[in-house]
Specification:
The complex is a heterodimer.
Chain A: H1 2-21, E1 36-49, E2 53-72, E3 77-91, H2 93-96, H3 98-101, E4 110-113, E5 118-121, E6 145-147, E7 162-164, H4 184-188, E8 199-209, E9 215-223, H5 253-256, E10 260-268, E11 277-285, H6 306-319, E12 321-327, E13 331-335, E14 341-345, E15 356-365, E16 368-378, E17 383-385, E18 389-391, E19 398-400, E20 406-410, E21 413-425, E22 430-445, E23 453-471, E24 475-491, E25 496-499, E26 502-505, E27 511-520, E28 528-537, E29 542-552, E30 557-568, E31 574-575, E32 600-601, H7 606-614, E33 621-629
Parallel strand pairs in A: 14-20
Antiparallel strand pairs in A: 1-2, 1-33, 2-3, 3-8, 4-5, 6-7, 8-9, 9-10, 10-11, 11-15, 12-13, 15-16, 16-21, 17-20, 18-19, 21-22, 22-23, 23-24, 24-27, 25-26, 27-28, 28-29, 29-30, 30-33, 31-32
Chain B: H1 3-32, E1 50-51, H2 65-72, E2 78-80, H3 90-99, E3 104-105, E4 112-113, H4 132-141, E5 149-161, E6 167-179, E7 199-209, E8 217-223, E9 231-236, E10 241-245, E11 274-286, E12 288-289, E13 296-297, E14 309-310, E15 312-313, E16 319-320, E17 323-336, E18 343-351, E19 359-364, E20 369-378, E21 394-402, E22 407-416, H5 429-435
Parallel strand pairs in B: 2-17, 12-20
Antiparallel strand pairs in B: 1-2, 3-4, 5-6, 5-22, 6-7, 7-8, 8-9, 9-10, 11-17, 13-14, 15-16, 17-18, 18-19, 19-20, 20-21, 21-22
The chains are: A mainly beta, B alpha+beta.
Chain lengths: 630, 437
């Protein structure tokens, strides 16, 4: 507790120093007669999920403070301004539906044992005398658990294992230090943590006029930096990590980007002989690294169900556990600690070399807008790197074993080059948006490699079109907005082979596309606005449909009712490395050491083929949000 | 040619030249100072008179038909003020003088040649000229309007139910205007350079309240080429991103108000999108007044300099509480070129002195009265101190009434002719990103 308070004080001190660094404190006297504008909202979001019941009872208070200081001539600061956003949330779902998401979640589980056509309880799997198979059930009891993936699919001959789902203060099994280790209060009150997330934004703006008339615009402090021109999915907009635990991919990015301490400078050259506007932007993210928040297993939103996979794997490493259908591909098997699983997460510490830097040149040339972007950053998604020392369950030897499913989590450095463009076609009265990003340094799961991952260059792109169309039959006075986007992803060094029992290699699709469509209309002087948002993952064959209606009772009170429905194929199978033969000859079916034969199941790698929509197929929801703003 | 003949010829040429100069001067004077010699009058009309349901019939000839109907229904009482001259800035008048007879219409509607600054066609419209209406439209487009630059800060829009008088929504904006070309008063003259896309005008809008649309910003670049559509960008506060907008749907309601984008300032589309016809010159009661002489709205806006905005009254609170004066107007009809346009026509009552469009009546496709638009014009010398001597007829209040829906949108302005509030860098896409949060 004291440690936590000390840490918090340390962060407060940093925050204060940073505020002072923004040059505000000495100016207080100058600013005495300026007025602070305070705005904000209180909001309740109540969601109900199919077969689960209450999945969100989120109550939010957000307060924004803005103050303009104008020109401070003695410092050559023009248009000086200050902005702060504070947000506090209490999600009551962990108290009101604790049997699903809180201290009473989970229970005793059984794991499939196909060889006998039955299931065995956690701890009831195969053990072989004279080996290290088996684990201490006192350390890892059969309680407070679910079977990995059970909310989406049955095991159906694949692998699965138990995953503790209670908050980490109630059950610490599988909680990865400094990464996925949220306590009950962390889940209930997500902003009140060591990183002071209740300070969503705190920054100062000012301009310096350069001798040639150009302007240098600064924004210093905790902030969101937005690149790119696309909605819903991110191609260039990768500077801030994202909190997917709030509502998966469906909340506005404004509300789920995780603000970082960043220095941003824009050299605004304005109009020139050629361009209508030209700007060179420098971004230095000097904050301590933060990954995306993928949610926590046991919470309502865990994108790709990755947090459950990680927690179950860390529990296997720490305490051992039963894995369904493992030995011989059909026998539930008990592993001991330190044999398979996730050992730890290597969270990059703060150092100058771990900070992140970006440059963007952006301009307008007539009907065209464009940007060229470069960024060096840390991947906000985890990479599982095998090749860590682990214990051979058959010999007791600790060594690095080829293709053993024992991992550490890393966040590799990634370099990005990209650009974007928009264009207004007068002829068809449509705006087109294009965005491209090419990265090097990203890492992907790959069962062809002995460390079970490989690096690949990736190109992502999006083409979008926006058009306003009158449908007089429905509304003669207000046009409907139609906005369509097609996202593509191409993994350049994609590897995949077909082996005796199935495909092996990289479960991510070499090329895949997601299409989105937004149709929005307005009635009653824009106080009533229904919309339909749909997204379809072509390779995963999964679709999300999110209709909603927004109604403004007044300038202050807004109600939004909606649904989020998924249709499509759901879970997908891929090589699960049961046949990787790490401990030759004990795990061999005749293949060489470390070579997978491709025996497949839904877990764990099928999630990369199902994607975020496919993995959420059983998460249909009705959603009601009330917001009172002030 | 003998000497005597040469002398006679030179004298004749000189006399003709002087005559032309005098004629040109008369054209300018007639265009910009129509009340110099005599103010218009109408039997029974005097400053201070209230026109209401009881006596409106007497003044039918000097009230536009829509407003006549409103008064007849008892929706408002109209207060009459004295006719006053709204002199535009002398530099604009001089620019008109410099450009006189150098400006011509192009072969097609929307094309113009020879204009640099000032009023393109100061001559009285000729009813026999088939393009007289189009010339008046150009005079409006290149009018002094907000001068070279100005800001409306703040600008309150209220959406009102005309039956219940309930204010459904109040939006608080800042509007900024900047002319890139045709500048006559504020440095640089006559144009801001560089101007690679040959822009004529920039409009920048920021929404201050309410919360759900706060920080929305709109930037419009209007090219000198009337045939080109605007380039527009929108910054959405909740997305924090600039989006380029498709601007073709100018008949779309702006932020749910009763105004189409095309309605702004009287007409906000391309000249080439309409067939223009001049219907005649009239003397009508028009919404011109001295802001400081009005009984103002003490609730909506308060600030340190004590400025208050125009109050609204009448049916549903849809009518500005102002005075109206008898003025010379040109009646101009604009009929959409495109058959799919939701209107069959607009009838504009263009103020002859200022070329503002304080009254417009819109008719739906069936030809029925749909909307009427009033833009109250305040004299700059009786407004904010900073506006004194600006020579700008200040847009000071507006009311767009949808008579079919019994709904209206009203506007209350704090118009400020102040170049420091509308600097060129404000009219760039990057400005939206730099100031958005």
């Amino acid at each position: 507790m004291q440690t936590r308070i000390r840490k918090s004080l340390k962060h407060w001190t940093l925050a204060t120093l940073a505020g002072a660094g923004c040059g505000l404190t000495p100016l207080a006297a100058v600013l005495a007669d300026e007025e602070m504008q305070v705005t904000g909202f209180v909001e309740n979001a109540t969601f109900a999920r199919d077969s689960v019941g209450l999945s969100k009872f989120r109550n939010t208070l957000q307060v924004n403070a803005d103050r303009k200081f104008g020109d401070l001539g003695q410092l050559n600061f023009n248009n000086t301004a200050f902005h702060a956003t504070f947000r506090g949330t209490y999600d009551g779902v962990y108290d009101l539906n604790s049997s699903e998401y809180g201290s009473g979640a989970g229970g005793a589980i059984e794991l499939e044992n196909s060889v006998a056509g039955n299931s065995v309880p956690h701890g009831g799997g195969l053990t072989v005398p004279g080996t290290l198979l088996g684990f201490d059930q006192a350390r890892n009891p059969n309680e407070g658990m679910i079977v990995l993936g059970e909310n989406l699919h049955k095991t159906r001959g694949g692998v699965a294992f138990g995953v503790p789902v209670r908050p980490c203060d109630k059950d610490s099994r599988g909680c990865i230090d400094d990464y996925l280790d949220a306590s009950s209060d962390d889940l209930r009150f997500p902003e009140f943590n060591e990183r002071l997330d209740f300070i969503r934004e705190l920054y100062a703006d000012f301009d310096n006029e350069l001798p040639n008339g150009d302007i240098l615009s600064w924004r210093l402090g905790k902030q969101q930096v937005i690149w790119g021109r696309t909605d819903l999915f991110r191609v260039l907009d990768v500077i801030n990590p994202v909190d997917y635990s709030r509502n998966n991919i469906y909340d506005e990015l404004e509300d789920i980007r995780i603000p970082m301490w960043i220095a941003k400078a824009d050299w605004r050259m304005g109009a020139g002989e050629l361009f209508d506007d030209l700007n060179l932007s420098f971004v230095w993210n000097f904050d301590k690294f933060r990954p995306h928040n993928l949610g926590q297993c046991g919470g309502p939103n865990s994108i790709l169900d990755a947090a459950c996979f990680f927690r179950g794997m860390n529990n296997l490493w720490e305490n051992g556990g039963t894995v369904a259908n493992f030995a011989n591909g059909n026998i539930a098997t008990d592993f001991g600690p330190g044999q398979i699983g996730i050992r730890k997460a290597h969270m990059p510490s703060w150092s100058l070399s771990n900070t992140q830097f970006g440059i963007k040149l952006e301009g307008v040339y007539g009907d065209f807008g464009f940007s060229l972007n470069a960024l060096t950053y840390r991947s906000q998604l985890p990479s599982l790197r095998g090749g860590i020392p682990a214990t051979n369950a058959f010999t007791g030897e600790t060594a690095v074993w080829p293709s053993l499913i024992a991992f550490d989590i890393h966040f590799p450095r990634v370099n990005l080059l990209g650009g974007s463009m928009d264009y207004y076609s007068q002829a068809i009265d449509t705006v087109f948006r294009v965005e491209v990003a090419h990265t090097e340094g990203e890492e992907f799961a790959n069962t062809l490699q002995s460390r079970l991952f490989s690096e690949s260059d990736v190109t992502r792109y999006v083409i979008g079109a926006d058009k306003n169309i009158f449908i007089p039959l429905l509304n003669p006075g207000r046009a409907f907005l139609f906005s369509a986007q097609l996202f593509g992803q191409h993994i350049h060094e994609h590897q995949e082979e077909t082996r005796a029992l199935g495909k092996v290699g990289m479960p991510d699709w070499e090329q895949n596309w997601i299409g989105t469509l937004l149709v929005k209309g307005w009635w009653m002087n824009d106080r009533l606005s229904p919309q339909l948002l749909a997204a379809h993952d072509f390779k995963a064959q999964a679709t999300a449909i999110a209709p909603s209606v927004e109604y403004l009772f007044s300038d202050n009170l807004k109600i939004t009712a909606g649904a989020n429905i998924k249709v499509g194929r759901g879970a997908r199978e891929y090589d699960d490395c049961r046949t990787c033969n790490p401990w030759d000859p004990f795990t061999s079916a005749g293949q060489p050491e470390g070579m997978s034969l491709g025996l497949s199941g839904y877990e764990p790698l099928g999630r990369f083929r199902a994607g975020p929509i496919g993995m959420a197929q059983k998460e249909d929801e009705l959603q009601l949000t009330l917001r009172y703003s002030f | 040619m003998n000497k005597q003949f040469r002398f006679r010829f030179a004298a004749l040429a000189l006399a003709m030249s002087a005559g032309v100069a005098q004629a040109d001067s008369a054209v300018i004077d007639n265009s910009f100072y129509p009340y110099q010699a005599e103010k218009p009058a109408f039997a029974g009309l005097s400053a201070g008179l209230t026109i209401n349901k009881a006596n409106v019939a007497q003044f039918k000839d000097i009230i536009d038909p829509a407003f006549y109907g409103f008064i007849e229904k008892g929706w408002l009482d109209m207060q009459v003020g004295e006719t006053t001259s709204f002199d535009l800035h002398p530099n604009y008048v001089e620019a008109t003088r410099q450009g006189q007879d150098k400006v011509k219409l192009g072969a097609k509607p929307g094309e113009i040649e020879g204009w640099v600054a000032g009023r393109p066609f100061p001559q009285e419209p000729d009813a026999n000229d088939p393009r007289a209406g189009e010339k008046l439209a150009w005079n409006y487009k290149y009018g002094y309007n907000w001068g070279d630059s100005a800001a409306i800060s703040p600008f309150y829009w209220k959406y009102r139910d005309m039956d219940s008088a309930k204010v459904e929504r109040t939006i608080k904006f800042d509007f900024h205007f900047l002319n890139f070309t045709g500048r006559v008063n504020q440095q640089p003259l006559p144009a801001i350079t560089p101007n690679p896309s040959q822009l004529f005008r920039g409009i920048y809008v920021k929404v201050l309240e309410p919360y759900d649309v706060r920080n929305t910003q709109l930037l419009i670049h209007r090219a000198e080429d009337d045939l080109k559509r605007d380039n527009s960008w929108l910054y959405l506060g909740f997305q924090r991103r600039v989006r380029r907008l498709a601007t073709g749907q100018v008949t779309d309601a702006f932020l749910g108000s009763d105004l189409m984008i095309e309605d702004f300032e009287g007409y906000n589309g391309r000249i080439s999108d309409m067939n223009w016809s001049y219907k005649g010159t009239k003397f009508l009661l028009m919404p011109f007044y001295n802001h400081n002489d009005l009984t103002l709205d003490s609730e909506t806006h308060k600030d340190s300099d004590g400025y208050q905005v125009v109050a609204f009254a009448g049916q549903g609170g849809c009518f500005p509480n102002i005075t109206w004066q008898l003025r010379k107007v040109y009646e101009v009809e604009s009929a959409p070129v495109e058959g799919s346009h939701p209107l069959s026509k607009r009838v504009h009552y263009v103020d002859a002195q200022t070329f503002t469009v304080p009254r417009t009546i819109s008719y739906d496709r069936k030809g029925s009265l749909w909307k009427t638009f009033t833009i109250g014009q305040a004299h700059p010398d009786h407004h904010l101190a900073k506006n004194k001597g600006s020579g700008v007829s200040i847009d000071d209040s507006f009311s767009m009434i949808d008579v079919q829906a019994m709904h209206c949108t009203t506007g209350q302005f704090k118009g400020q002719v102040d170049p420091a509030m509308s600097k060129p860098e404000m009219f760039s896409v990057q400005h939206m990103r730099a100031t958005g949060n």
